[in-house]
Amino acid sequence: MKDIGKDRALLEAYASLWNNRKVMKGDEEPLLILSELVRRELLDENAHPRARKPIHEKFHLSVNRVMESSLTDEEKTALISVYCTVQERILALK
Question: Is the pTM of this model over 0.70?
Answer without folding.
Answer: yes
